[in-house]
Amino acid sequence: MSRKPAPAQTGERARVELLFDRPQLLVQLFGQYDQHLVALENRLGVYITARGNRVGLEGTAEQVALARDVLNDLYQRLQRGEEVDTGLVDASIAMAAEPVLTGIIRADAGPGAPSVMIRTRKKTIVPRTAAQAHYMRELTTNDMIFALGPAGTGKTYIAVAQAVAQLITGSVQRLILSRPAVEAGERLGFLPGDMKEKVDPYLRPLYDALYDCLPAEQVERRIASGEIEIAPIAFMRGRTLADAFVILDEAQNTTPAQMKMFLTRFGQNSRMVICGDPNQTDLPGGVRASGLADATQRLDGVEGISLCRFTAADVVRHPIVGRIVEAYEGVEA
Fold this sequence. Notes:
- Helices cover 38% and strands 17% of the residues.
- It is α/β, with parallel strands linked by helices.
- A hairpin with a 2-residue loop joins β2 (47-51) and β3.
């Protein structure tokens, strides 16, 4: 593999050669037409050469170190049987550039060391950004977690994965997923069917996350048995949710009264995760009418409650989504 060298960068130059002992993994590591290596060159400003199972990196000492960390991270993921795609490459590059966070232990920390990962029936979820790693740690240590940030940062998906993992191991008896049934800026009019059929369209993202973590037949069986409950927030009134992992999605669309009602449903041996984007409420009155903004202001610093904040840099969908979020951040609706 040989390409035009990356533009010269200021700073001390360095060269490192990496040797990979499983050449059969290098096709996935490099990507189709070496697209993953091209992404590294473009994003980090390094020059990469690959011959056989040897990869040479050339650039400033800092850039070479980052590129080396990214390639080693991706290679270790492939050794564990994970898939590497362009989204993961972009996320790994972004995470390598993050400052090291004290207490964050990477999934490749080594045998016997606690790791940041969530295992479910269908897949193992590992963090793609430093904020996700922090969030996953908080999910295991705090009883109530507010996950705040734009769409595409994995707030709800990671919470559902953690809930499924705890349901599988028996540390909770029920999984309760809820969100307010608020139309996103449009009037859908009359919806046919019974109550379940009327509210299911609002809850579809929660079903999607469940089916990604559990086989379809298990999801259906556990819903039928009541182990998994998916319902709009109005169905939570008057209940005490004990021995349960409770997730509220799209929390920015709750009113302060609804949020207070929901939070006070918290019961013994339960964990509650509240996910939402404070800047994207669909309520009349905007952010000022949102129960999420009200709750985070009141509860910030309360013992046992954690606030995890995500930014556009944590978006793990197509890179253009992150750029769209950045363009809209700070713009009043």
